[in-house]
Write a structure and sequence with these properties.
Elements lengths: L1 E5 L7 H9 L3 H9 L3 E3 L16 E5 L16 E5 L3 E6 L16 H8 L23 E7 L2 H12 L4 E9 L6 E5 L2 E3 L7 E3 L7 E10 L2 E8 L6 H8 L23 E9 L6 E5 L4 H9 L7
Parallel strand pairs: 6-13
Antiparallel strand pairs: 1-3, 2-3, 4-5, 5-6, 7-12, 7-13, 8-11, 9-10, 11-12, 13-14
Helix pairs in contact: 1-2
Length: 302
C-alpha cells in the first residue's frame, strides 16, 4: 500500500513535510527515505533534508500498519455546496479536520466519508479530499476536493494566492489602527515544539486585517490570509499584542469563549477547477461567537 501527497508550499524539507502530513516521526521518515521507500517526483531522493516545491508529488510505501483509519461516521455536517468536483462545508467549532493520534475519529473526514460521494485520494486514506485545514476550535468555510484533478487545481490556487480566505476574529484589547498588515515569518517555536512563533528563519507569513467594530477591551476584525501557515492568524495577532479571545495556546481562556478561540473562516473565494467560474462561499459565525458579540453589545450583522 502506498500513500501519495502533493506539496502545496515552497521550500519545506522533505522529512518535515512528511512528518507533518503522515503522522510519522522524523526518524521514521528518515529511515524510510534511506530504505528507498519514498519517491519524490518518481525518484529516490538523495537526502532526507532535500527541499520540496509546490506541485511536487511524493509517494510513500506505508512503513507500518497505521494506528488510525478514517471510517465513515454519521456525524451532522453542513454542506454549503457540492458538485462532481468539489464540496464546500461549514466546519463546526470543536471538530478536528482529519484523524490523528489524539483524535482517531469524530473528525470532519469521518463525517465527509458518510455524506459526500467520492473524495480525492491525493492525501492518502487519513486525509481524503483535504486541501487545507482549519484548527479544531476554528469554525467556518472549508473546500473539499472530490477528485485528484480538482485537488491539484485547488492546491495550486492556495499556493499562488488566487484563492482568497477571510476570517472574523475577536481580539483582546484596542488596536491602534483601523487596518494593517502583519508581515512576520512564522516557524516552529524553539521553546515548545507544539507551538508556532514569529521569528527569524521562519517562513514568510502575511496577514491583512481591518477593524469592524470596537468594544471596551475588545476589537472585532476581519483578517485576510495572504499565506497559509499553521496557526497564522493566532500567532500574528499575538505578535502585535492582541491575541484572539479564548485562544488557550497563544492567549488565555475567556468566559466569552468557552469552547476555544473566537476565530471563524467566514468567506472563501476560488476558481472552480472545471468550469473556471469564480465562486464565493460564505458561512455565518457560530452560536458561541454570536453570543459573545451579543454580550458585548454588537448590533451589526456578520
Amino acid at each position: 500500500m502506498t500513500e501519495r501527497y502533493v506539496v502545496t508550499e515552497e521550500g519545506v524539507r522533505l522529512d518535515v513535510f512528511l512528518s507533518l502530513n503522515s503522522g510519522k516521526t522524523r526518524s521514521a521518515i528518515a529511515k524510510a527515505i534511506e530504505e528507498g521507500k519514498v519517491l519524490l517526483n518518481g525518484e529516490v531522493p538523495t537526502k532526507t533534508g532535500v527541499k520540496v516545491s509546490c506541485g511536487d508529488e511524493i509517494v510513500v510505501d506505508v512503513m507500518e500498519p497505521r494506528p488510525i483509519s478514517a471510517a465513515p461516521q454519521d456525524i451532522p455536517i453542513e454542506v454549503l455546496y457540492e458538485d462532481a468536483d468539489i464540496a464546500v462545508v461549514n466546519k463546526p467549532q470543536g471538530m478536528v479536520t482529519h484523524p490523528a493520534a489524539g483524535s482517531p475519529d469524530g473528525t470532519l473526514v469521518n463525517a465527509l466519508l458518510a455524506r459526500v460521494t467520492d473524495l480525492s485520494g491525493i492525501n492518502g486514506e487519513i486525509r481524503p479530499g483535504i486541501v487545507h485545514r482549519l484548527d479544531k476550535d476554528t469554525s467556518g468555510v472549508l473546500v473539499i476536493a472530490k477528485n485528484d484533478a480538482a485537488h491539484l487545481s485547488l492546491s495550486k490556487q492556495i499556493s499562488e494566492k488566487t484563492a482568497l480566505r477571510y476570517y472574523y476574529a475577536l481580539l483582546v484589547g484596542k488596536l491602534a489602527s483601523d487596518e494593517g498588515i502583519v508581515d512576520k515569518p512564522i516557524a516552529r517555536s524553539k521553546k515548545d515544539r507544539k507551538k508556532m512563533a514569529v521569528g527569524e528563519g521562519g517562513r514568510k507569513a502575511v496577514t491583512l486585517y481591518r477593524v469592524i467594530e470596537r468594544f471596551p477591551g475588545y476589537t472585532l476584525v476581519e483578517c485576510e490570509l495572504r499565506t497559509g501557515r499553521t496557526h497564522q492568524i493566532r500567532v500574528h495577532m499575538k505578535s502585535i499584542g492582541h491575541p484572539v479571545v479564548g485562544d488557550p495556546v497563544y492567549g488565555k481562556e475567556s468566559p466569552l469563549a468557552p469552547q476555544g478561540q473566537l476565530l471563524h473562516a467566514h468567506k472563501l473565494v476560488l476558481t472552480h477547477p472545471t468550469t473556471g467560474e469564480r465562486m464565493t462561499f460564505e458561512a455565518p459565525i457560530n452560536e458561541v461567537f454570536a453570543a459573545a458579540l451579543s454580550k458585548l453589545g454588537f448590533s451589526g450583522k456578520l
